[in-house]
Amino acid sequence: MLIDLEFDSRDEAEGLLATMKQVWAGPGQDVMQGPQARIVEVAERIESK
Questions:
Q1: Residue 41: which pLDDT band, with cuts at 50, 70 and 90?
Q2: Dihedral, CA atoms, 31, 35, 11, 44, nearest 10 degrees?
Q3: CB 32 within 8 A of CB 24
Q4: How far is CA 22 from CA 27, 35, 39, 42, 47, in A?
Q5: Model confidence at 29, in pLDDT bands (50, 70, 90)?
Q6: Which of 12, 36, 43, 48 has its CA 20 to 30 Å from the CA of residue 18?
Q7: Residues 6 or more apart from 5 whose CB is under 8 A from it?
Q8: How many Cα atoms occupy the beta-carbon half-sphere of 18 within 13 Å?
Q9: In whole angstroms, what is the distance from residue 46 CA to residue 15 CA?
Q10: Average pLDDT of 11-40?
């Protein structure tokens, strides 16, 4: 599964990631194996017409 989220700041993204790591280490480990996450920043955004 892939989930793509957008945040107003890097701090917000890192906050959610910290929470998800706690979930994955606790009850989430019963349903997920080897979860991965990445925080990336948009270098350039081009709007299509």
A1: confident
A2: -130
A3: yes
A4: 9, 12, 17, 26, 36
A5: confident
A6: 43
A7: 13, 16
A8: 6
A9: 27
A10: 91
